[in-house]
Amino acid sequence: MEEYRLENSGNNTSTEIFNKTNWPEIKTQVTELIKDCFPQYNFTNEEIENFFLKTYSNDKALVLFLKDKLERKIIGFTATYINGDTADIHMTGIRSDKRNQKLVGELMKNLEEKLKTIGVSYITREAKVNDGYADAIERYYGDRVIYTEDIEGTKGGTEEKRSIKIKL
Ligand SMILES: CC(C)(COP(=O)(O)OP(=O)(O)OC[C@H]1O[C@@H](n2cnc3c(N)ncnc32)[C@H](O)[C@@H]1OP(=O)(O)O)[C@@H](O)C(=O)NCCC(=O)NCCS
Question: Which of 53, 34, 56, 54 is CA-nearest to residue 44?
Fold first, then answer.
């Protein structure tokens, strides 16, 4: 995947989005971010590093980072796998103290712009049902949601998940 950096053109001027970067440079802050976003999985530093190195070397994978310009730190990320005309959003996270400010929307908007330029027409994703996340995603995409199916999640036990397909 070629290098990509996009200054936000929308409302939020305090953040910027970028993808490829030098892993050793961002390793510490990304590791902290992942632990903060997914405490329930108890990921080790090594697991986090392996995930990012594997994703970086996969030319079908796209990772976008959201950086707070003032703080000069990464405060969010999303990892996506592209298969033909469809991109599957694998993981998304915003640092806990930066949540509820619609920052995930900044990431998604930029992700979608990028995916469209490389010929992707659909995104798919799974989201937890119990905590209302699947409903929030459906609200956000509205009539662009073209398919949903409630399934039993594979990760982290048997919690109920919804598989959602969205038209870009
Ligand atoms: C889930 C998470 C990324 C949301 O980020 P956020 O910036 O705090 O999002 P907000 O609560 O400000 O959401 C604003 C709106 O965006 C929408 N939205 C939320 N998550 C979305 C997503 N992943 N994609 C698209 N839209 C989303 C919702 O419509 C929400 O509107 P609402 O007010 O109607 O619910 C964040 O809470 C987080 O990192 N949680 C821990 C990690 C996690 O569980 N990740 C998801 C599974 S991989």
Answer: 34
